[in-house]
Amino acid sequence: MYSKITLFPVMVVALSLAFPAQAQTQRMVIENGKVASASRPEVGGDQVLMLEAVGKVMQRDYRAAETLYSQAIAQNAGNLQAYIQRGLIRRELKDGQGAQSDGRAVVTLADRTLQRNSEDADAYQQRAMGYRLQGQFALAKEDMRMALKRQRKISWENDLKAIELEERMSQ
Fold first, then answer.
1. Where are the domains of the chain?
2. Which among 61, 76, 113, 122 could bridge 46 via Cys, Cβ 3.0 to 4.6 Å?
3. pTM attached to this predicted model
4. What are the pLDDT digits (tens) for 46-61?
5. Nearest of 119, 166, 163 to residue 144 by alpha carbon
6. What is the pLDDT, as a whole number, of residue 29?
């Protein structure tokens, strides 16, 4: 079914989450449900699991994606993107408590980063996503604006719009 389908646009996004420096040059392929590449960069096992989870999301196999994100977290408890992605998957699976738990973990980890470097735009964006998973939209918007103030990214502008929309829909 998905045995050698190149998912280049999706994989570039996933690659940028897993290892930003190689994201623009590395082409990844899903082969038999596993991530494969002609020249795989040196990455941690948690990053490979995250890429495999993206493949499961593309197949709409959310339970398998959740399991892979959980395995990535077990390998690297500091992987904020794994918590964010698992939280989003848990929301899709109607596991609100699980999503909120992942959101709390993201906020805690991002807070640690911001204590070391209060100018870290990525940490503000990640914390915003953690607040979003918890339904704390005012805090999510505030942090997303802090991230955008430090670094403009179209994807973050879209995240801010999504937070605003989600907030309106929840009222």
1. 1-76, 96-171
2. 76
3. 0.76
4. 899 999 999 999 999 9
5. 163
6. 45
